[in-house]
Amino acid sequence: MSEWSTSAVGREHAFEYWRDLICDTFVQLSATPTRPGGFDGRLTHADLGGLELSTVHAGGQRVRRTPRLIARAGEQYLLASIQTGGHGRVEQDGRVAELGPGRMALYDSTRPYTLHFDDAFEQVVVQVPLTAILAETGLRDAARVTAVSLPADGPAGVVAQFFHGLSRMSPADPDGARALAQHGRGLLASVLSLSSGRAPSDQSLARERVHAFLRAHHADPALSADDVAAACAVSRRTLYRLFDGGVGRVLREIRVEHARVLLRAAPDRPLGSVAAACGFAGDRQLHRVFREATGLTPGEYRAGGTRSR
């Protein structure tokens, strides 16, 4: 988690500093303030692995992604702005999305767009690689759903609440946020699919149903593929097809992510207790699986190691 504020520079340089900051955090942009006088802005940013999450608290401004900037730096991202305070609008592909608290809009960095805020506002911004998110949805592009205001009382609102909660959690518990963020891109892909008029496929729904069951029951060391198949109303053959060889790898990943959280959150907790809470048969299995997954022993990770395979 990184945090920056215009309070770090003099008032006369505040907006220039802010312009550089948003370009470094998101994509290359031009920006101008919408009010004369002083400008204040604060931005926090976290790279959660395949998903970047930022919170923006700032004064009024007009931000543009122009063809010239796209040609200069062709970053390819899908971004989602979730309004948490104030009002704004997103313009892209000939549409305008009005944003109030709880509403969300998507936009694509490969085509020109404008963000406009008359006065002070707050947002959570989610940023994911465009190619990857399109591959998950089967869409060729996001042009049908950009700059569409997605309401707080629909499916997008549920996803917006997830990301808003994740943004509040990240500063205090970055490991826990990282563990939860692995599901965020799938949720955003669902919003993209639904907004385009394409419901998620039966296969996608089945995969998410299995994921949800594994997250809820991964602490059971006796959990088997037959148990998962029966609970999710699919055959073992379907499980192998959904997860490229079975659910064992997915189950290990979920258990390792849970162990990461516990190892950092409770430094004095015995390894046997961590193993039991995460569904490992004992601390020896935890040690072996954790090292295979991360390149570190549980003790090395707990001591602050970061290497990962």
Automatic annotation (TrEMBL):
Keywords: DNA-binding, Transcription, Transcription regulation
Record-annotated HTH araC/xylS-type domain positions: 208-304
SUPFAM superfamilies: Homeodomain-like
Domain of life: Bacteria
Keyword Transport: no
InterPro entries named among the record's database cross-references: AraC-bd_2 (IPR035418), AraC_XylS_family_regulators (IPR050204), Homeodomain-like_sf (IPR009057), HTH_AraC (IPR018060), HTH_AraC-typ_CS (IPR018062)
Entries under Pfam families matching the protein: AraC_binding_2, HTH_18
Gene3D superfamilies referenced in this protein's UniProt entry, alphabetically: Homeodomain-like (1.10.10.60)
Family annotation (PANTHER family): ARAC SUBFAMILY, HTH-TYPE TRANSCRIPTIONAL ACTIVATOR RHAS-RELATED
Protein name: AraC family transcriptional regulator
Species in which this protein is naturally found: Amycolatopsis heterodermiae
